[in-house]
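Marked as duplicate of an earlier ticket. Keeping the data here for the record.
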Amino acid sequence: MAIRRIMIYPDPVLLSQAQAVAKITRPVRQLARDMLETMYAAPGVGLAAPQVGVRQRVIVVDVGENPVTLVNPQITTAEGKQIGLEGCLSLPQLVGEVQRSEWVVVSGLDLGGKPITVEGEGLLARAFQHEVDHLDGILFVARVQDPTCIWRTDELKASVQKEVVHI
């Protein structure tokens, strides 16, 4: 395993559409392992392949329950609404108030190539939505409804900084 360099905005890979993975190969499995290690080292709770410079539809998420790796993920169901502070490993100095669905169902493939469906609520739902957005070239700042609700992390009080989740 290896820690990969996280792409920082305005790197163009972050704004491009990732390509579907045609076949899960050894390099794809290695990418996923590297992404997990990179995410933990950052630290964050989610990472998409474009964030490490790879234009493939692969995400990893771990909000403290169990790590989830999905290849070619799609959000098939989304319900409810939550608003919360969100940060991003590719925009390390910014946080914003983002509205996301409270509950989602995500389908994709596991690293063995088998179909998998995962439900997420709360933070897990937020992380899935954030990472799938990355695969479509969408950064969280594009989801902030009120531009006055984007802050630099060094402007936030320490107590608020602890609430920010870097996805």
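See parent ticket for discussion. Residues 14 and 71 are 18 Å apart (CA to CA).
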